[in-house]
Write a structure and sequence with these properties.
This protein is of the alpha+beta class. It contains 2 helices and 8 strands; from the N terminus they run E-E-H-E-E-E-E-H-E-E. It has an 8-stranded antiparallel sheet.
Length: 152
C-alpha cells in the first residue's frame, strides 16, 4: 500500500462503461485521439511527459459508468484548454500493481482482470495507470496501476 498526496491532471476524457464491453471500444479510441491530436503537447505547464490514464467519477463501482481521462500531471487546474478536462486526484491510499509484457498481448487489460478478481476494498474515487519511461517500448512495457483502497 502506498499513500499519495493529491495531484492535478489535464487531458481529454470519455464517459464509458464496462457493460457490453463498451470500454473496450471507447478507451482505445481515446488513446488514438490522444496521440493523433498530440494532446500532451497542448497541456499547459505539465510537470513531465509521463501520461496518466485516470478512471474516476464512478457512478457506483466498475460495473457502472465512469470517466476515463488521458493526460499529464500539472501543478494546478488554473488553465484548462478548451476541449480538455481537468481533475484533482484526491490524496488516498493505493494498492500498486504492475503490468509487464507486450502491449499487443493486452497485458494491461489482463492485469485489470486480476485486480477486479482480487476483491480489494476499493473506494472507487480515482484509479490510474502511469505510462512513464518504462512504457515506451510496446514489446516490453511496464505500467504501474494504482487502485484507491480503503485505509486498513
Amino acid at each position: 500500500m502506498e499513500k499519495m498526496e493529491q495531484f492535478a491532471i489535464i487531458g481529454i476524457a470519455v464517459r464509458t462503461t464496462n457493460e457490453n464491453e463498451q470500454a473496450t471500444q471507447d478507451i482505445p479510441a481515446l488513446w488514438n485521439r490522444f496521440f493523433s491530436e498530440k494532446v500532451a503537447e497542448h497541456i499547459p505547464g505539465k510537470t513531465d511527459d509521463t501520461v496518466y490514464c485516470v478512471y474516476t467519477d464512478y457512478e457506483k463501482d466498475h460495473t457502472q459508468p465512469y470517466t476515463v481521462i488521458l493526460g499529464c500531471r500539472v501543478p494546478d487546474l488554473d488553465h484548462i484548454p478548451d476541449g480538455m478536462t481537468g481533475k484533482m486526484i484526491p490524496a488516498a491510499t493505493y494498492s500498486k500493481h504492475t503490468a509487464k509484457g507486450n502491449l499487443a498481448e493486452n497485458v494491461i487489460y489482463h492485469e485489470w482482470i486480476k485486480i477486479i478478481q482480487a476483491g480489494l476494498p476499493r473506494t472507487f474515487t480515482a484509479d490510474f495507470e502511469v505510462y512513464g519511461e518504462k512504457a515506451m517500448n510496446p514489446a516490453a512495457v511496464e505500467v504501474d496501476i494504482f487502485i484507491a483502497v480503503k485505509q486498513p
